[in-house]
Amino acid sequence: MLNHLPVIGALFSLLLLSWALIRRSPELLKTALAAVVLVGLTSIPAYLTGEPAEHVIEHLPGVDEASISEHESMGKFALASGVALAVVAVASLGVGLRSPKGLLMGALVVWLVNALVFGVMGYTAHLGGQIRHPEIRDDGMQATPSEPHENEAHEE
Question: The whole model's pTM is what?
């Protein structure tokens, strides 16, 4: 369940930050930025659970090593993105404490970074889903029918 937090959290914080920007409420902006910091930091435990999860599933039937490797590589980028998001949000909060205009400008920058990080987190999650769900892999494999079609049964 922990690995879903960065994805769902990035969407939630993006929506909350959007609402705060529309309302232009300093209190709501600060709350949204604090939420963004927390969401960015959730990428750390999500990443740290990856290696133990790999050891559990790597030998299961249908698990593709190439999918694990691709997800792991993107996971490192997602971790860096999440931490960078948290840092940008903290900086925005710091600027916002000194200047209301700075708070608004910082929140706009954080909104943009948050939108990008949401995309990164979503794509990373998609790659993770391909590990245990071969039906969504983009490798051209299609399910074969278990029984012949009606027309095939009558042809002789």
Answer: 0.79
Interatomic CA distance for residues 100 and 81, integer angstroms: 26
How many angstroms separate the CA atoms of 115 and 38, rounded?
15
Calpha distance 88→113 (Å, rounded): 8
Q: How far apart are CA 110 and CA 94, in angstroms?
A: 13
CA 23 to chain CA mean position, Å: 26
Distance of CA 93 to the CA centre of its chain: 23
Buried b (16+ CB within 10 A) or exposed e, 110-126: bbebbeebbebbeebbe
Structure tokens at 47: 């990443």
Mean pLDDT by 10 residues, the chain (156 residues): 87 96 95 96 89 73 75 89 97 92 95 97 87 65 42 44
**What is the predicted pLDDT for the residue at 138?**
63
Q: Which residue has the tokens 């209301």?
A: 100
- Mapping DSSP to helix (H, G, I), strand (E, B) and coil, where does residue 151 land? helix
